[in-house]
Amino acid sequence: MPCNYHFVTCHIPSLMNWIVYRKIEEFKAVVPRNRVFMGVRKGKCVAIRNPITAPSEVGLIQLEKDDCKYTKHLKHIVQFGEGDYMMRMNQDYDGDKLCLFNNDINYRNIDFNYLEMYKNTIYQVEDKDCPALEYFDLKYKEALDEINPNRDEAIYLTDFVHKLPCQVNYDDKTGSITNKAIQVGNRALDESDYKKYEYEIMYAKYLQGLQIDVSKNMKEVIIDDVYSYSYNKKPQFLYYNYRGKKWRYDKNVSSALDSFAEIIMMEYLKHCTALINKNTIISS
């Protein structure tokens, strides 16, 4: 199945409109609903997350030509408009990856000769010897017949995508593990001592690897009780976003974004002060 992984995000022009104007009605007027863009590419594709952790992560999408002059050159970025695509397929709004499969291959025309490394392999079928390539072809046709018994009709990916195997993970600890990894990194940055937290950071990466494999091996990830960092302080940029409300926290550890937010605020205040002074008339 020819396919490629692509970066996925929400509709960029709509996001920029919201950032600049913050006007809900204007935002609703410009955001496309349940539409997908990828540069000038058009056509029907099957989009799949890998590994698949829920049936909803397999979806049929219709790519539309992007006519926006600011984003039509983004030929390798998938932009989802407002709607159910990103939520249903568990895509992160700050960016994710998606595997796109073309829907123009007739799977009845697959030739198994490319598996020539198995040409000398023999399978036992009903106590008779069967060359591997013949066996593969036989089982493959049986699988296609279950989808559509009429062998004169073409079969495309959209005809059987709903039958792809899926293992559902009921105990996803990705968020918890990632939060702990960020907390440790923040503390190491605040104390300027990454060596002190070297093993904690390594353990976080180890847990993330285990969690990624859960959908394939269905083995629960166990987080050691000792690994129990707590970091509830909101970074400075969220302090302004939430109208100046102060947040309680049990550990006074600065976020890595705090210093950046403070620098931006200082430069902004300098700019405002310069404008005020420039436009202020002082009478003698």
**Major beta sheet, strand line-up:** 1-5-2-4-3-6
Task: Tell me how many strands there are.
Answer: 8
Number of domains: 4
State the helix count.
Answer: 9
Helix content: 25-40%
Note the run of SSEs as H and E. Answer: EHHEEEEHEEEHHHHHH
What is the fold named in CATH at topology level of the largest domain?
A: Barwin-like endoglucanases
Question: What is the residue-averaged pLDDT?
Answer: 76
Percent of residues in β-strands: 5-15%
What does this structure look like?
The chain has helices spanning 12-21, 24-30, 85-88, 132-147, 157-160, 174-191, 198-217, 236-241, 256-278; strands at residues 3-10, 36-37, 43-48, 58-64, 77-80, 96-102, 122-125, 128-131. The termini are far apart. With 284 residues, the protein is an alpha+beta fold. The protein has nine helices and eight strands. The radius of gyration is 27 Å and the shape is flat. Strand 7 (122-125) and strand 8 form a beta hairpin. The protein has four domains: 3-102, Beta Barrel (Barwin-like endoglucanases); 107-163, no CATH class; 174-217, no CATH class; 236-278. The strands form two sheets. The protein has a six-stranded mixed beta barrel with strand order 1-5-2-4-3-6.
